[in-house]
Write a structure and sequence with these properties.
Blueprint (H helix, E strand, L loop, with lengths): L3 E4 L10 E4 L8 E7 L6 H13 L6 E8 L5 H11 L3 E6 L5 H11 L4 E4 L11 H9 L5 E7 L5 H15 L10 E4 H5 L11 H7 L4 E7 L15 H18 L3 H30 L4 H52 L1
Parallel strand pairs: 3-4, 3-6, 4-5, 7-9
Antiparallel strand pairs: 1-2, 6-8, 7-8
Helix pairs in contact: 5-8, 9-10
Length: 341
């Protein structure tokens, strides 16, 4: 079997992933995106289980896109051997570690399926559950399906805090936001290219009007290797990301709403304080220097907030244009890739 290799750059500012593909190219229903970092021991068994699952579901066509995210073990050589064996397997490679969000985007750019599935390579989730995950989407009952983990989870406390805060802030009626997911391709178009923001894919999709569903998926012990993520050190990062997503969804398109309200409130407080200070001076003939300092500060801050909101609105307009340009470039890149193949 002959293996053709092509370069599929994601951005000129970062290292290009090396992709491996086959011809002829046929459309598929589901593309399983598997970010892998030092998973050489898990990948052969993952592909074996995936093949069994796909054979048992002949009415759905599948492919697996594995993204080697800068592995330092033998993952890439193992993947090249597996690619010769499994026709459904496609490969992409990051020369350095770029994280799950970038890996999912690289997989999206190299995938052909109209439904995408995020699945880790560590076998804590078995490929046999993939058909249940995609079924509501293929039946047009949902646009995104997230898995609710069932089983012993080492990070249950941190996950519980994260999910509880997320439900409180975003009012998304699912129990587990940070798990395996199946979703339509269109959802990736509206997902900001930000580190770790894949964790908020459910929140962002729901805010954009996509229908979200949840199915229970068993969680198993890791087959081999160890987790690549620290638990407690990620809590402050996760909270800041959560606040950033909340701000993006609430005020990202119209920041003037927030800053104008703050500026107007502070400015009005300063004006009212000034009126009261003048009345006190006129009635009692007594003035207080600290009151005038507060008045000046409030008026100045109000003006700064308002000006910041105006500037933010201009930036938001530019971001919207860049996002649309990026979407068109991604579509063109996919078309060019298909033509070359």
């Amino acid at each position: 079997m002959t293996l053709a290799r092509a370069q599929a750059p994601v951005s000129s500012a970062i290292s290009s992933p090396v992709t491996t593909s086959r011809s002829p190219i046929a459309p598929v229903d589901v593309s399983v995106l598997v970010p892998a970092k030092d998973e050489a021991e898990n990948l052969p068994l993952f592909m074996e289980q995936a093949e069994s699952t796909f054979r048992a579901t002949p009415d759905i066509s599948f492919e697996v896109v594995v993204i080697d995210d800068g592995s330092e073990d033998d993952s890439w050589s193992v993947l090249e051997q597996l690619a010769r064996r499994y026709q459904f397997l496609k490969l992409a490679r990051h020369r350095s570690r770029r994280g799950i969000a970038d890996a999912l985007r690289t997989g999206y750019l190299n995938a052909r399926g109209r439904v995408l599935v995020f699945y880790p390579a560590d076998l804590q989730f078995k490929p046999e559950d993939i058909p249940r995950l995609v079924a509501p989407i293929l039946a047009d009952e949902a646009d995104l399906v997230t898995g609710f983990k069932e089983g012993k989870y080492e990070k249950a406390l941190v996950s519980g805090i994260y999910n509880g805060l997320s439900r409180l802030l975003f009012d998304v009626k699912v129990k587990d936001l940070n798990s395996v997911k199946a979703y339509r391709r269109e959802i990736m178009d509206g997902l900001p290219v930000r580190p770790d923001w894949h964790r908020y894919m459910v929140v962002i999709a729901a805010a954009q009007g996509f229908k979200v569903a949840e199915v229970r998926v068993p969680l198993y012990p890791r087959h081999a290797g160890h987790s690549k993520f620290a638990t407690w050190r990620r809590i402050p990062i996760g909270v800041l990301d959560m606040l950033s997503v909340w701000f993006e969804l609430r005020f990202g398109q119209k920041p003037l709403l927030l800053f104008a309200m703050l500026g107007f409130g502070v400015f009005v407080f300063g004006v009212l304080a000034g009126i009261l200070a003048l009345a006190r001076l006129w009635i009692y003939g007594v003035g207080q220097r600290w009151i005038w300092s507060i008045i000046q500060t409030c008026i100045l801050l109000g003006s700064v907030f308002f000006a910041t909101g105006m500037l933010g609105d201009q930036i938001a307009a530019q971001r919207a244009q860049l996002r649309e340009l990026q979407r068109r470039m991604d579509e063109q890149r996919q078309d060019d890739e298909r033509d070359r193949r």
